Amino acid sequence: MSDDVHDDYDDDLDPTDAWLVEASHHLDDTDSDVSRLVARISSSLNRVRRPARALATDMPGVWISDRVVKQLLATQIRTGLGRLVVFASLDGAGDQIHAVRIGLIARYRDDLPVMSDHIRDAIEDVLVRTLGAKVTAQACRAIHVRWQDVYSREWLS
């Protein structure tokens, strides 16, 4: 851009805005310390976030990401049962699921054994609808539900 464009634009600004625009013209590139910090944080993000795992379905040649299944589980449980999922694990090797572990926030007055049964039913429904009854049969028999206290966030026995 030419200076003429900046000058025309600067004339339309109030004095404070004009000062800010002028100051921005003199800003240096980011400090090398800042650049190193950004690079360090960015490089560790790849280690924190693991790659998605493709899960087999009852339909040959079709796989679904474990992230999609976890999101569907969390959404179904939140909207259908009003509980917040804080942990979800689809355990198994390769593209198979052998068990599901799920952690939720408990509310006072919850009947946890009854609510756990409702959670298991919701999980089984999502697994069968998304992946199929055959590939999820073992996992549907091994759904482990854990609860956290709403205030202390401690896991309940």
Account of the protein in words:
- There is one protein chain.
- The chain is α+β, with helices and mostly antiparallel strands and 157 residues long.
- The chain has two domains: 3-48, no CATH class; 54-148, Alpha-Beta Plaits (2-Layer Sandwich), CATH 3.30.70.
- Helices cover 51% and strands 17% of the residues.
- The protein is built from six helices and five strands; from the N terminus they run H-H-H-E-E-H-E-E-H-H-E.
- The chain has helices at residues 3-11, 15-25, 32-48, 66-81, 112-130, 133-140, and strands at 54-56, 63-65, 85-91, 99-105, 143-148.
- The strands form two sheets. A three-stranded mixed β-sheet has the order 3-4-5.
- Helix 4 (66-81) packs across helix 5 (112-130) and helix 5 runs antiparallel to helix 6.
- The protein is extended, with a radius of gyration of 26 Å.
CATH topology of the largest domain: Alpha-Beta Plaits
Query: Can you count the helices?
Result: 6
Q: For the terminal residues, how far apart are their CA atoms?
A: 66 Å
Looking at this structure, what is the CATH superfamily of the largest domain? Answer: Cation efflux protein, cytoplasmic domain
Order of helices and strands: HHHEEHEEHHE
- Provide the structure class: alpha+beta
